[in-house]
Amino acid sequence: MKIVITVVIILILACSATGQTSQASAKSEKTLTANEAIEQIKAHVGVPWQEPTVDTFKAGDPQTRVKGIAVTMMATLDVLQRAAANGQNLIITHEPTFYDHLDNPAQLPQGEDDAVLKQKREFIAEHHLVIWRFHDYWHRRKPDGIEEGNVHALGWEKYQDPANQYLFTIPESTVAKLAEELRAKLHAAVPRIAGDREMKVTRVAFSPGSAGFRRETGALEMPDVQVLIAGETHEWETVEYVTDAHTEGRAKALILLGHIGSEQAGMEECARWLRAFVTNVPIEFVPTADMWAPPANSKPAR
Amino acid sequence: MKIVITVVIILILACSATGQTSQASAKSEKTLTANEAIEQIKAHVGVPWQEPTVDTFKAGDPQTRVKGIAVTMMATLDVLQRAAANGQNLIITHEPTFYDHLDNPAQLPQGEDDAVLKQKREFIAEHHLVIWRFHDYWHRRKPDGIEEGNVHALGWEKYQDPANQYLFTIPESTVAKLAEELRAKLHAAVPRIAGDREMKVTRVAFSPGSAGFRRETGALEMPDVQVLIAGETHEWETVEYVTDAHTEGRAKALILLGHIGSEQAGMEECARWLRAFVTNVPIEFVPTADMWAPPANSKPAR
Predict the structure, then answer these.
(1) What SS3 string covers B258-293?
(2) A207 contacts B89 by C-beta, under 8 angstroms
(3) For residue B95, which residues of chain A lie inside 8 Å, CB to CB?
(4) What ipTM, to 2 d.p.?
(5) Cβ neighbours of residue A49 under 8 Å, at least 6 residues apart?
(6) N or C: which terminus of chain B carries fewer CB neighbours within 10 A?
(7) pTM for the predicted model, two decimal places
(8) pLDDT one-digit tens code per residue, A41-82
(9) Which of B27, B35, B32 is nearest to B67 (CA)?
């Protein structure tokens, strides 16, 4: 119900921002190119599009006709193989394809001659895949699409702070029990805990992905926040900080889910969101295997 | 035996570089200040000292008389408390004290008003501790002091490549068995594996800490390297790369030990190295608790 209302609000915002009508939008979907699909996303996201952003095409020809859309957390080769086998040729990925935030693998010592990179590029070319990243604006959307997906997957709508979507007051639990709930509901293969796992918690901050030291410690500095949930972060920064807070006797703990576990549900949310306005192309959420899960168990769609 | 020879070589190098004699060095130890102790390190490390480096004093008065030296991986408050209780007032730490590579906690939203930081600074002041970081030059030393400690702890001297200290040819194992050996010998609480854990391995690259994408993929690009061991690294960079390499059918895997597990033995090595030329002050290795270990188990010295 909340999602439907949100989509309606965003449609109104998008229309007012771009002057498009929903009929014009529906017309363009009939012969949809990858570029047209992405233009629809830009029109519906409800936040004015500005450069610079990493939300750009990463591979393939944007004029390609879309047969199917695969929405994923990270465009690993494994994801691309499954998408291609499903007949999907537009891949919308939250995280990089080419091992770099700007998808510029120049940091690879062998650059474009790197064998792993070459084989991935060849697979993309052979299957005429088009890859577009949806990172900055899926976070900037109101609400943050990634956080909305996490909330949905956890069933935490009723616990969310109305003034700050990243804060929650949950029924009393312990850090260890909370980590177990997150592991099970978000399919995080190897959650890690810093601090006292038997500590009782009700006030939680959930910062998905890798938001960095400033945002993470900003949450931990809030007097009532007892535990921070995040994806990945540096041990010599946020992890040392929370470890010291624990040593000082403060009620602070950290649960790291891994990057994929902390954001994957947000791209499942993205697939649901897309289906509301891209109606004449099949759209599927293709989960990225958690990199820390045994490959034999992580291959099947979860 | 190898260590003794190495120390002798370094002493010769250091003397030729600085013109100091070992008698002059012994004389200054009698009334050692923190600054004098660090000058001895600079003279013995065998690599000309150049700025900029993070190997600087981070807290306390360098003119403080040294009662005891604590050598550690990361100067967490827990480490500082144990060192102070042992009567050690000079702390030599490989990693930051104040949650930042440059030990400038300006990234904390509350800066110097941050409660966790303030309490740590107060503890340091009350106990008249002096903290100095030994990072860049302990790695730059030949051999890399961190890697030497890892090799010592693993008993891998005979497997080390004479041409590249970070490469090893070990008796045939599997990725999973190797991870278990590393967990046990390096006290890594939560090692994580990407790739095929049943893959047979003999050729190993061990890149301690967080060396970054370029160095890590440089190791993985070597055709014979089957598994990279590291501390921590970004999932959207090296981890995605090794996951793709695995999907392509290449014999590549990654074991992440956590930052502390991957470098701690290198600071135990540093304590041994220091004892060879700082002879009139007690020197102790104070292990940093692995941040992912349950605190109850990690408090006692390991």
Answers:
(1) CHHHHHHHHHHHHHHHHHCCCCCCCEEECCCCCCCC
(2) no
(3) 235-236, 240
(4) 0.89
(5) A42, A137
(6) N
(7) 0.89
(8) 999 999 999 989 999 999 999 999 999 999 999 999 999 999
(9) B32
